[in-house]
Each structure stands twice: as structure tokens, then as C-alpha cells.
Amino acid sequence: MSSLAQGFTKSLAMTVLSEIGDKTFFAAAILAMRHPRRLVLSGCLVALIVMTILSAVVGWATPNLISPKWTHHLTTLLFFGFGLFSLLEAITEGGESEELAEVEAKLNADWKDNTGTTKEANKANGELKKKQRPFLTHFFSPIFLKAFSLTFFGEWGDKSQLATIGLAADENPFGVVLGGIVGQALCTTAAVLGGKGLASRISEKMVAVSSGVLFIVFGILSFLSPIES
Prior knowledge:
By secondary structure, the protein is mostly helical. It is built from ten helices and no strands. It is globular.
């Protein structure tokens, strides 16, 4: 198994380049403009930490379920695949802020629906409203839950989650978890504090090129590294 520092460094670099300009990054930036930042930040961070730990556990368990040789080869192919996909995405990208516009449009639609529902709900009896509240909202803020659910389900099946699984299968899982959490914290904090102003300045093409090159480098390193029995 590789060193903790190596797993941490690779995971940190991969997470930062995968998450900057991602849909969940833009969602955190827009939510922070409309709701208390501490609730948005905490909801997004908890979701990302849970997702990182789950992904690392799956990656760590994979070599115990499949032969280490096949796990190594699959991880190598995964890195090369994500690298080529990211580079292709950068070449065919139509505009610099397509994902930002898409996320903003979706959140705007949700915002209008929720505003209309809130106005109608305000006319209802306060006690009845309290009884009809979803179970989790009795313990957590609705804003926290919204930030958590948007981030968690937005990351589910995303290339950053699959890359974390692959990285944890090939590197020290504790290093991968630590690097992923630090990377997620940096990106999410930047999104929440920077807001839409920072999000709109990010070049999605440059991020895609950078992450594509990084994934290909990871693929080459994985290809050249010996297979552990």
C-alpha cells in the first residue's frame, strides 16, 4: 500500500480540480447568496465528507472482492477514461458558464416554487404547520437539509466520486479520505464566501483541461506502478 502522504496529495489535487467549476460548487455559491452562509457551508461540507468516506470505503473494499490485479487495471483505465473525457469536454464546450447557468436556472425554479408555497402556508394555522413538517426538519434547519441533499445527490455517480473510489483502491485510503476532505473544504468554502462573483469568473474549459491532464498523469503513474499482491 502506498504512503499516506502520496494518497493525501493525489486526492487533494484531484478533488480541487474536479470540484472547482462542478455543479455542486455553483449550487453552493448560489445558495449562499440567498441563505445564511454557515448553514449552506455546513450542509454542503457534511454531504461531501459523507460522500468521500463512503467512496473511500468502497475503493478500499474493492481489492478484497476482486483480484488486486484486475482492480489495478480497472483503476488505470478509469483514470485514462476520465482524463480523455475531461479533455474532450473542454474541446467541445460551448460556453464558459453553461453549468453555472444550468444550476442557477434550476435553483431559481425551485426558489419560485418554494416562495409560492410559503405564502400559501403562512395562511395556515401555526400548530398545524408544525405537525406537518417533515421529520428531519424538527432536528435540522431546512436550509441545511437542502444544501446537504443538493450536494449529496449531485455528487452521486459523478466522476469525482468514481475517481475517489479508484484512488482509494490504488492508494492509502486514509490519505485519500484526508485529502478529499481538505480539498472539499477548500472548494466549498471558496464557493460559499466568493458567491456567484467568484463562480462566474471560473473558466470551465481551463478546469476541464487541468483535471484531464491530472487524470492522465494518474493513469500513467498507476500503469507504471507495480501490482501489489
